[in-house]
Amino acid sequence: MLERLPERARTPAVARAVTSPSAVLLAGAGMSAAILGGLPLVAAAAVGVLAWGVRVAMAVPRPPREERIDPFTVGEPWRHFVADALQARAKFEQTVGRARPGPLRDRLIALGERLDHGVRECWRIARQGDGLQAALGQLDIEQVRQELAEVQSELERCPAGERASLERAEAAVRSQLASAERIARVSRDAGTRLRVLNAQMDEAVARAVELSVTAADGSDLSPLSADVESLVGELESLRLALEETAHAADPTAGIGPDARGTSA
């Protein structure tokens, strides 16, 4: 029975629902109601099967909803990048809508699916970048630098035999500063790269608009398709790099005055 179901429906929950007592009882209740209602036995059996099918269908997992892209939930410059990508997608959709049915339009539709994936990657990058900026705000690089200077000043005045705790504090503050500077560098580089990739997306859409009215057939879109694939690949790579940085960052770590120890 499960072999006849779609791939996404072949789950343990569906398998249990197929033979669950509730499904069997629902099928029996459906048949009984149909018979009492005067339906022939064959029709009553069909009603029972339908009731059983409804119970099984309720166990089939639903495909996840696509996340809504909202530029106003992230700060600048990420908001601008997302809005620009959405504008490029809207312009491309208008181009597809004006194209005549045929191979060229089919290729444009396929190209649009990849472009849409690129827009979603841009959105994920923007969210990651915005999160990194928030983490950077919590770390406060200038404050960490000041704290490092204070620890180093204490080390200079501290007797040699009492330096151990202050040296550990210095190492911890240096590590925190390195993390903050790394996050700042990654965030800055990501913004630069995304700006370039957004410009390439705008260029790809402009070429698609031109080709939609000048191309002889769908094969003329092959170079553009290759460029869009490359663009999407770069967006995916940037998003993965930002995710790795976000996972490695620990904005909650901090070195307070108590961690430095005291000097006699």
Measured on Cα atoms, how large is the radius of gyration?
30 Å
Low-confidence stretches: 250-264
Helix content: over 70%
Spatial shape: elongated
What is the tally of helical segments? 8
Order of helices and strands: HHHHHHHH
Structurally, the number of domains stands at 2
Query: Mean pLDDT, as a whole number?
Result: 75
SS class: mainly alpha
Q: CA-to-CA gap between the ends?
A: 79 Å
What does this structure look like?
This protein has 264 residues and is mainly α. It has two domains: 2-59, no CATH class; 71-260. The chain is built from eight helices and no strands. The protein has helices spanning 12-18, 21-36, 41-59, 78-98, 103-139, 141-157, 164-214, 222-248. α1 runs antiparallel to α3 and α4 packs parallel to α7. The longest helix is centred in the last third of the chain and has 51 residues, at 164-214. The protein starts with 11 loop residues before the first helix and ends in a 16-residue tail after the last helix.
Q: Could you list some keywords that capture this structure?
A:
single chain; 264 residues; mainly alpha; 74% helix
Give the topology, please.
Elements (H helix, E strand, L loop, with lengths): L11 H7 L2 H16 L4 H19 L18 H21 L4 H37 L1 H17 L6 H51 L7 H27 L16
Helix pairs in contact: 1-3, 2-3, 4-5, 4-7, 5-7, 5-8, 6-7, 7-8
